[in-house]
């Protein structure tokens, strides 16, 4: 069965990190270019936007209803009801050329976020992966070893964590403890090419499949739990950045994208949506209370 993508929100957004809010019945996402945190309903109505001081790489939903927002060197907390922003914690010990990138809340209730080397030429594998608790404690879980940290997602049983390097380009899987947040037994899950789609943001469905945005190929690649590509869906945009399962039944896929790509399309930068034949694995909330 194919999957048809339509434009949910047409704008030249530098979109990333879609997150479904089942309480507010909307999807939050970031515009890295503005920079801002945005939200919209799945029928395209009630668009809202909250400016943030610096490039926002990713967001996570808190149990309180607030959002945790990554900045290049820090993490903020945004109250969408009041628009109030406060700094939660700064990231220390990162190289000056690094910034925070992809992030997602894990089954342990912590926000996981990785860093990337922003240099375009002679990029180095100096990215790390961090775990941030609701009280602002930050731990470097994976020390260096990646160019562009990306692709965080967890299996529906919460026992496997996926993590990718967009410039590797590879995807790893880890054994995961939802009780402690410990990651062990790193295993190479898949290696990709430019043509197949370098792995950007990702999500898991209830069948344990891993849905990866192939940012260099304009597709969503669906992997089996053993790392085989089962399906590849064209998204209509040149550079999709991250999928998220949304809607009351988590059976719609919302995909962010990048604008202004070489040989790009008019709809690049749009927020895309498609009905799926499965349901997403629910994403945990950040334990901020």
From TrEMBL:
One of its GO terms (biological process) is L-ascorbic acid biosynthetic process. Residues 15-257 form the SMP-30/Gluconolactonase/LRE-like region domain. Its cofactor is Zn(2+). Substrate binds at residues 99, 101. GO terms for molecular function: calcium ion binding; gluconolactonase activity. The active site is at 200 (proton donor/acceptor). It comes from the Bacteria. Pfam families: SGL. This is SMP-30/gluconolactonase/LRE family protein.
């Amino acid at each position: 069965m194919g999957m048809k993508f339509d434009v949910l929100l047409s704008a030249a957004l530098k979109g990333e990190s879609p997150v479904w809010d089942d309480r507010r019945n909307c999807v939050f996402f970031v515009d890295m270019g503005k920079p801002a945190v945005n939200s919209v309903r799945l029928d395209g109505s009630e668009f809202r936007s909250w400016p943030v001081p610096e490039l926002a790489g990713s967001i996570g939903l808190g149990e309180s209803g607030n959002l945790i927002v990554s900045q290049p060197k820090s993490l903020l907390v945004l109250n969408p009801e009041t628009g109030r922003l406060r700094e939660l914690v700064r990231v220390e010990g990162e190289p000056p050329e690094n910034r925070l990138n992809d992030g997602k809340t894990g089954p342990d209730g912590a926000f996981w976020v990785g860093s990337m080397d922003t240099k375009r030429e002679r990029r180095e594998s100096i990215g790390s992966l961090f775990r941030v608790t609701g009280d602002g404690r930050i731990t470097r879980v994976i020390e260096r070893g990646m160019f562009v940290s990306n692709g965080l997602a967890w299996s529906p049983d919460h026992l496997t964590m996926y993590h990718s390097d967009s410039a590797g380009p590879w995807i790893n899987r880890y054994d995961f403890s939802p009780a402690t947040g410990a990651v062990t037994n790193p295993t190479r899950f898949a290696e990709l090419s430019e043509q197949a789609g370098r792995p950007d943001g990702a999500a898991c469905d209830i069948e344990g499949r891993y849905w990866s945005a192939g940012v260099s190929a304009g597709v969503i690649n669906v992997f089996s739990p053993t790392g085989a590509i089962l399906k590849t869906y064209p998204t209509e945009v040149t550079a999709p950045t991250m999928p998220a399962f949304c809607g009351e039944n988590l059976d719609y896929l919302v995909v962010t994208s990048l604008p202004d790509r070489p040989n790009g399309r008019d709809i690049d930068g749009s927020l895309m949506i498609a009905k799926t034949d499965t349901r997403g694995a629910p994403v945990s909330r950040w334990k901020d209370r």
